[in-house]
Every structure is written in structure tokens, then in C-alpha cells.
Amino acid sequence: MQHLWEISTTECAGGKESILRRGNVYQIANGYMGYRGTLDESGPEEAVGITLAGLFDQVGAAWREPVNAPNGGFTRVAVDGAELAAPGPAVASHRQTLKFADALFERETVFMAGGKQVTLASSRFLSAARPNLGVIRFTVTCDQDADLTIRTGIDANIWDLNGPHLRGLAAGRRGDVLTVEGRTHEAGKPVAVAEVVTADLGAEDHLNEQNRSLRVFRLRARAGQPCTLVKYFAVFTGHDRVTAPIAAAVEAVQAARRLGYAGCLAQHDAEWQRRWARGDVVIAGDEAAQLALRYSILQLLMVAPVDGSANSIPARALSGQVYKGAVFWDTEMFMFPFFLHAYPEKAMELLRYRIRTLDGARRKAATEGPGYRGAFYAWESQDSGDDACTYFNIGDPITGRELRTHFRDKQVHISGDVAIALWEYFKVTGDDTLLVQGGAEVILECARFYYSYAHFKKDRGRFEILDVIGPDEYHERVNNNAFTNMVVRETFAIASATVEHLRQRHPAVLAALLEKIGIAGELAGFADAAARLYVPAPDGATGVIEQFDGYFKLRDATVEELRTKMVHPNEYLGAGQGLAVPTKIIKQADVVMMLNLFKARFPAAIKQANWQYYEPRTEHGSSLSACAYALVATEFGDLDFAYQYFLKTAQIDLLASYKVYVGTIFMGGSHPAANGGAWMTAVLGFGGVQVESDRVTINPRLYRKWQALEFGLEFKGDRFRIRITPAAVTLTPDRLNRGHPVFVIAGETVTCAPGEPVTVDVAEVANSKAS
Ligand code: BGC
């Protein structure tokens, strides 16, 4: 089944767009940095990028974006004076592979140069055990004797969208270690790269040319004898807790060299084994689904933040600087569930990021609107939590004009999305550490923001949430968006529940918090708002929930109709003049997203009615849309449709089938929210898993092709392996578990003792119920 653990391609040419897409599909990452799937000899033209998590910089008035490190993985070879590079005319064959088991990138390219056949092969990984470290083994083999020149080192010519971000770049050498160091423009943060090589290739020269710090080997290669070098490179920045990044980088590569390639790889592999043991999902009987889902999970495991970093995952992960490296609601609503249920330490890290950026959210509330208070989280959040989203966030490709968008100032559901994730973490893990360590403060400040945002309609005796954008970004500045109102109401309820929990378990923490943010007098208001906040209800006759006030009065249209009216392929359908604005066409799941987020509160019939109403009116113009429709379809039993949209979400990055431009904005990169959506659809959707604070319910609805679905699940600090077949559900609790949690499987209640597997015959339960 090796083929379900790797992907490979023989393409290496195909123009800029293909190179960009391959760079995304074959990227590797370790939470600290991402390395695009480019080749050893690639440069900025091929969009080489070693994108650093959580380090941002702005040059002039251009967008702030994550910093790409100088490329310590650079190697170029010349044979008898002719330089080899792929793509290029000398390429005879090429294969590149991404191995899922340990996020290992491999390439093998055969060149014909002056009648000689030369093979370049390399294996590359970013250490999962030592996050600052990258390791590459590189081999050149000629079929005849030849003069080889191998130039390898650190290339500071890197792909930047809005750079260059490093000033004062200085190349240096400490013994046989090469270094390059620079500082970011804005904050003057140091970024240091060190590189060292082990090779048996004779003497080396050193050379600084064209912004590259290189070592040069000149040798006579013997026919058929591989010439191999192993490169170790390390990146340290001002964000690492070290006094001198450059010294730390030098030490890191020296230590790695002592360990050797095999030693580094063994540590890396051991860490990846631990990750897969927790995160893998097995789908028996459906190879396409298996491959796509595993690839999606790989993406999430690769970009999970480094422990202790309090970083989050940007909407385009670490695939480059696209989308400003910003963190959106994508993280809490789409990626977080995977981590929460399979790898809670990382879920905690993601939430720590929101706690760390609370002050930015406070600043936004204080400056964004009239009398806003509390925490209004950034729509596009970078390192400080201030909003990177601009008021004119999209350019019109037809006129070249900037379009006023209100993502930043009106997409207020973001604060509640954060509060809900914090509460979910507590509910599922039972661990209140985060609440005590800043999470409760976040929740209360989010509730405070909504209290300052809500309008109390005296004539109707209710609170309303006016002038917002819901998940559907094509309709701006709407009133009473069902999703938003529901999220706001939930936030008020969570605020009250948080206070109650602290009152019972941590009264001193509560007292200190209420004092610190002076909020005691506002708590009764939150409870009142939770009770009297209006949320659009299902229509009595049709069951359909109006997406926002007046939505039903908009003109009905089809997505095809709008497409035929487009005058430019990248035209944006929203903002003031967009084609979708006067119509019922929505960009992405909105009411359906709400039905998924609050799935326990709506019966299947309501889910079905809304799904059927909104699906034909959804453009699915966001990669976040498909999984919401897939998940809700599993709830009311349209498994064929659910499957179709499951594959769409699971394959988006594997097939690289997505919009690359929206308006004038370049959007290419990976889609971790869709990757998270794939996991959710498989486990929570088809697996029918629902985790409550006191139990886990499993109501499987396996897709008919699937012979078995198997996954890991963590609940209240205990680990389980769950295997679902059409006939039975088997729970295997880890023997180190401490709890005896309750599972309700297809209606049958079982208690799970550590190390004792339990099987429930699903068909039998269904039969006995029927009898
Ligand atoms: C979607 C947003 C999403 C953002 C980042 C937009 O196109 O409409 O919901 O948060 O992309 O993925």
C-alpha cells in the first residue's frame, strides 16, 4: 500500500503556473518553516521559498507578509562546464516524490549533457525533531568520466511577493560553516542561516557571488560512481529564544553533522511515527479517498505550530507569502477540530496564539468603530494581532481600481469563532489550563465586544446584530446574519459559563480577572443579551432560514448565469458592484455552515431543507465551502453528495485545482482549511462522531464504497483508536488511559476501560431497535 503513502510526478516543465503549483503540492514543512517543492538548483524564478512561521515584515507601503529565509538548500552542478538545471533543454527524465510517512521530498533528474548522462538525486527533510533544521542528501552520478563543479551553499536570492525583507545581508564563515544574516526592515529582527556540508569530494573553495555564499567543489567524477554530499542548514531568528541567532544556527548545523544524515533522519522519522499514530485515518476500499485524505492530514501535521511558539496556521499555511501569511477564522472553524480531536497539544498552541494576540484585538475594537469595546479579532491576523486586512483588499481586474471591501470592519463573527474554539477545547479535553491562562479573558473580552456592537431594539424587545458580513462575503453590510447572530449568542452564553466555571473551580482567578479588566458590572448584560438576542429561525412552512434580513427579496439567479456575464475571468463577484451582490448567489456555505457548527440544535429535516435551498445558490468560490455542504449532507443522509464534496475538499491541494487569482490578488498556495474540512467530513461526517462534554456519540454513516474507517480520537486526555465497518464499531482504548468514558454507539451506551477493546455490532443494534 506504499502508493497510498506518497505522490510523485515526472513533470518538471510547464511554465510558471505549473512550477508554482508543483511548489505547493510538493512542499514540506515542520511548523517552524515551509520549504516549497522546488529543486535544489531552483531560484526566485521558480518561486523557491523557505517561509518562516510567525515572522512578518513590511517594506514601504506594500503588504506586510511573512519573511522567507535565505535558501540554505541551494546546490547547482556543472558538467564539463555546462550548468544543469531543471526545467531545461538537457532534461531527459525527471521524477519528484513526496513521501507522506515522514514528509520527505525526493527528486531524481537525468540530464544529457555533451553526450554524457548525468543523474542528480536528492532527499530533503525539515526536521520534525529539531524545528530549525533542514537536511539534504545530494548525489551526482555520471555515466562517463566528467569534470564536475558543484556549487552549494546559501542563496539569498529568494522569492518575495513584497520584499526583499532582509537588509544588511552579510555572508560569513565560522570554520567550515557558511552563514548569511540579515535583519527585517520593520522590526530589525535578525534572521540567520547557517550551512555545513559533509562530503568526500576533495578540497573546496569559497565564493560569494550574486548574493550567494557558496562552497565550490571541482572534481573529476568517475563513470558510474556517485558523488555525494550531505547538507545541513539551520534558520534562527529574533523570535527564537536564543541570544545570538547566528551562533545558534552554527551550533545547530554542527550538532546535526555530528549526528549524521541517518541520525537526523531517525529522529525525524520517530517524531513522524508519533504524529501518524495519532492523526492517520484509514479508509479501506477507496484508494482515491484514502490518498487525498492522507495527503490532507499530512498538510496539517506538517504545519502544526512548534510547541511553545504560540503560533497559528495561516490560510495558505507555510506555502509562501500569499494572503499575507495571515491567520483567519479558517483556523478555529476548519483546522482546529482535527487538532482538538487527534492532537490536542497543537490545538492548545493554536489557541495560545489568540491569547497572545488579545491586545491586538483590543486595539482593533478601540479604533475600528464607534464605541466598540473588548476584543474584535483581526480578520487577517499576523504576529501582533493587529489587522492586516485593508479596507480596499481586492483590486478590480477590469478597471484596475481598488474595491472597498468590509472584511476587516464588518466580519465580526471572527471574535466569536475564537471564543467558541476556546470553549470547545475545554469541553473536549476537560482541561481548563487555557481558560485560566488567558482564555477566560479572551472570552469575556469577545462578549464585551459583542455587547458594544449589538443594538437593542426597544420596540421589539430584542438585541440585533446589524451591519455585518457573514461567511458569504458577496453580501456585505447585512443585518441579522443567521450565522453571525448565532455565534454572538453563543459567545454570550460561553462567557456566562466560563464565569460560572471559574467561580466554582478557580474563584481567586476569577476575582483577579474581573478586577483586571473591570468587567464584573457587565456580566448580567451578557446573560440578558444571550436570552434576548434575535436569531433568524427556520420558516414555519419551508424550514429555510433566511441568511440575513431581506435575503429572500434578492433576485434569484444561477451561478452559470453570473459566469456568462463576467467580463474578466478573475472578476470579483462581491464588493459594491459585483455581479452576485443584487442576487441570491452566495460565495460559500453560510446558513449551512451555521447548521454544521451548531449541528446538535437542528433536526435533520431543517438541515435538508436549507441545504437544498442554498446549495444551488452557492458558488463555492471559497475552499471553505465544500466541506460544510459535505458535512451537513451526511447529517440528513445524502451520502453520495457528501462524498462528492468530500473528495472536492480532500483533493484541492493534491490536484492543485483552485482559483489562483481573485480580482488582482494572487492567491495560489495551499488550503489547510480544506484539509481540515476533509478530516471533519471523514471522521465527524461519515464516521458520525460527536464529542460532548460528558460523552462521545458515534452514529456511523459510512459511504457505501468504504469497507472500514479507522482513526484516532482523544477525549479528556485519553486516547482511542476507533474502527468502523458497516457491521460494527470497535473502540480500542490505549492501555495508558486513566478514564472510563462513556461512548454511545448507534444508541448503545458502553463504558471504555483502559486497554480493553469494545465492539458494538451496529447492524444488531439497528435490528434490535426495530424489533
Ligand atoms: C473566504 C474566507 C476565508 C478566506 C481565507 C476567503 O475567500 O471567503 O471565508 O477566511 O478566504 O481562506
TrEMBL record:
One of its GO terms (molecular function) is hydrolase activity, hydrolyzing O-glycosyl compounds. Belongs to the glycosyl hydrolase 65 family. Keywords: Glycosyltransferase, Transferase. It holds the Pfam family Glyco_hydro_65C. It comes from the Bacteria. It comes from Lacunisphaera limnophila. Residues 691-732 form the Glycoside hydrolase family 65 C-terminal domain. It is an enzyme of class 2 (transferase). Residues 22-238 form the Glycoside hydrolase family 65 N-terminal domain. This is Nigerose phosphorylase. Its EC number is 2.4.1.279. One of its GO terms (biological process) is carbohydrate metabolic process. Substrate binds at residues 329-330, 587-588. InterPro entries: 6-hairpin_glycosidase_sf, 6hp_glycosidase-like_sf, Gal_mutarotase_sf_dom, GH65_N, Glyco_hydro_65_C, Glyco_hydro_65_M, Glyco_hydro_65_N, Malt_Pase/Glycosyl_Hdrlase. The keyword Metal-binding does not apply. Residues 294-679 form the Glycoside hydrolase family 65 central catalytic domain. The active site is at 473 (proton donor).
